[in-house]
Amino acid sequence: MAKVKGKFISLAISLMGAYKDAQAKADEYIFKQTNLHYNKLDQEGWYDTKIFAHAMDAYAKASPTGDRAYVTLGQKVYPTIKKTSGLPPTLKTPLDYILFEAEGFKANHKGNGLKPRKFIKKDDGDVIVEAEAPDYSCKLYKGVFLGILEMAGIKTGKVEQTKCTSKGDATCEFHITW
Known about the structure:
Blueprint: E1 2-5, H1 6-14, H2 20-34, E2 46-48, H3 49-62, H4 68-75, H5 77-84, H6 94-108, E3 109-111, E4 118-123, E5 126-130, H7 140-151, E6 158-163, E7 173-177
Antiparallel strand pairs: 1-2, 1-3, 4-5, 5-7, 6-7
């Protein structure tokens, strides 16, 4: 079973603050799975990725933006990591940040079924990476990569998902440009 750190589950449910009924229902599910409410999860503790999937899907379903909610959530992942466990001071360029995401994924996930990032192209301003999600929507990663670019000072970066396992492709692939 793949696991993810609790801070991401808490983040997803906290973003549902404007949708109180949906937030309460999602929190009830988390409580049934963990005996803890979303705001009491151990932020650095390990939880089944299916719980994170449920939290993300509940947020997307409640949000009037629908699937865009996955991107919004993703954009908040690295600011959350920076606030909770920190980022290395060696990260200087957008490419440094993008390449570090592969390490960040490994640091925040563990267990079976995890596929490490595979870089197809890693040029300054132009990266192609395979990034599959364990048990949850890979739509999150568009936001993760956009959020990383924003942290690196890039406001006009673009992330295009060029392949997706949910569409029959063998992998999920993202083309990141800035």
